[in-house]
Amino acid sequence: MAQQSRVLFICTANAARSQMAEGYLRAKYGDRFDVFSAGVHPAGQVSPRAVQAMKEIGIDISGHRPKSVDTFTGVPLDLAVTLCDNAGAVCPVIPSAKRTIHHAFPDPHLTAGTDEDILDGYRRVRDAICTWIDATFVHGLPM
């Protein structure tokens, strides 16, 4: 079996976007990718709304914990992906990654309205991340 490519998803708090991306890539393409996530300023926990949004599509990220990008210092990575504008500005290059790309997604935590409106914001971001991952990683690492 070929060695899996190592992918690190990064967002500011490692509480929603990067956790959803990690969970989805692992669930859908885990046979080809060894996948991780981290944050520039990690939160205390993964967002319960992110956990709920992923559970709705059959992916359990309830056991995930936010980690700092510092955890991956010196860890060889094939690809680092920053998922939000803040992470892209704060850490545009991960030295141990062969390549870094940026693809911004809105912060679902900033969705205004009722609890249901906010959860819908998480669902929209989840769906956008899943669609982007399917288009980007279906044939291997993006070029």
From TrEMBL:
Pfam families: LMWPc. One of its GO terms (biological process) is response to arsenic-containing substance. Keywords: Arsenical resistance. InterPro entries: Ptyr_pPase (IPR023485), Ptyr_pPase_sf (IPR036196). Residues 5-139 form the Phosphotyrosine protein phosphatase I domain. Gene3D superfamilies: 3.40.50.2300. SUPFAM superfamilies: Phosphotyrosine protein phosphatases I. CDD domains: LMWP_ArsC. It comes from Methanoregula boonei (strain DSM 21154 / JCM 14090 / 6A8). It comes from the Archaea. This is Protein tyrosine phosphatase.
